[in-house]
Amino acid sequence: MAIDLSTRMNFSYGEPRELAPGIVRIVANNPSPLTFKGTNTYLVGSRTLAVVDPGPESEAHCAAILKAAAGRPISHIVLTHTHHDHFDGLARLAAQTKAIVAGYGRTVPPKGSHRTAPDGREISSVSFAPDIVLRDESVLDGDGWRMRALFTPGHAPDHLCLAIEGTGVVLSGDHVMAWNTSVVAPPEGRMADYLASLERMRGLGDTLYLPGHGGKLREPERMVRAYLVHRRMREEAILGAIREKPRAISEIVTLLYPGLDPKLLRAASLSVQAHVEHLVERGLVGGDGPPTSDRLLYPA
Ligand SMILES: [Zn+2]
């Protein structure tokens, strides 16, 4: 494995911890194989605050955010993306703070279309119409802080990283993390977008990423390069397996992930599917119709 992952993380649930000047993390108590220790909520600023990612719907987590604010106004709530573990706490926190809500925004696909998350749950069940729509390079100003949005789809179609101006710090959401690689799972995730979004982060010169899960990431561009190498190796392994003999995604998963935790089987299958879709898009793997788990894939 080319990636030097770190599962180190110093925290207590609900306790604010300052990770950079004016940037405080609170970890929500929603651990799982996909969320690691739980979702990270960040408070940015000193006089008035922005909350980035309210986290899951939880009375205790919302109370922990308000306690950490210690009476300072929360002027903005910003979303890196609308997956449940980052978004579901928005309604409660917005009701308590009357903050301005900012994010990329998205509309729910028509009813009846099949959209599930890697853990089997439905993806966003509500449309998200933020007060302030952020696009690539959009700047959001608060009292004593300024953040710049980097549109980074791939893990989710509405994903933003948020660069905190003047600090070298990027709140990297689920795009780039220290503890694990990012899940890119169709239909929500798209590998072509994801790889382009990794390239998007290169050469920006930032010194610290604070991700949506797990601990801080120093020398982040090294990790971005490692993620790219990891994806290239994975793609080569998948293409190699298909060139050996026609195989289905389910068989490739068994080959690539020996001894996989059964709880992660669905995420692994969708991740392989994302790579296969990317190979099909470039004409390297053949087949008609979308690649499903059991359909045989042929080299093109
Ligand atoms: Zn997440």
Question: Please, could you describe this protein's structure?
Answer:
By secondary structure, this protein is of the alpha/beta class. The protein folds into two domains: 17-219, Metallo-beta-lactamase, Chain A; 228-299, Orthogonal Bundle (Arc Repressor Mutant, subunit A). Helix content is 28%, strand content 19%. The relative contact order is 0.13. The chain binds zinc ion (ZN).
Structural class, judged by helices and strands? alpha/beta
Q: Give the cofactors and ligands.
A: zinc ion
CATH superfamily membership of the largest domain, which one? Ribonuclease Z/Hydroxyacylglutathione hydrolase-like
CATH architecture verdict of the largest domain: 4-Layer Sandwich
Distance between the termini: 28 Å
Radius of gyration: 19 Å
- Seen as an oligomer or otherwise, the chain set is single chain
What percentage of amino acids are in beta strands?
15-25%
Helix content: 25-40%
Tally of separate helices: 7
Number of strands: 15
CATH class of the largest domain: Alpha Beta
Low-confidence regions? none
Mean pLDDT figure? 92
With strands numbered from the N-terminus, the spatial order across the biggest sheet is: 1-2-3-4-5-6-7
CATH topology of the largest domain: Metallo-beta-lactamase, Chain A
Whole-number tally of structural domains: 2
- The dominant shape is elongated
Sheet of most strands: 7 strands, mixed
What's the helix and strand layout?
Elements (H helix, E strand, L loop, with lengths): L16 E4 L2 E5 L12 E5 L4 E4 L6 H11 L4 E5 L5 H4 L2 H8 L2 E4 L28 E2 L5 E3 L4 E6 L8 E5 L4 E5 L17 H10 L7 E4 L5 E2 L1 H25 L4 H8 L8 H17 L3 E2 L11 E2 L1
The structure holds zinc ion.
Zinc ion binds next to helix 2.
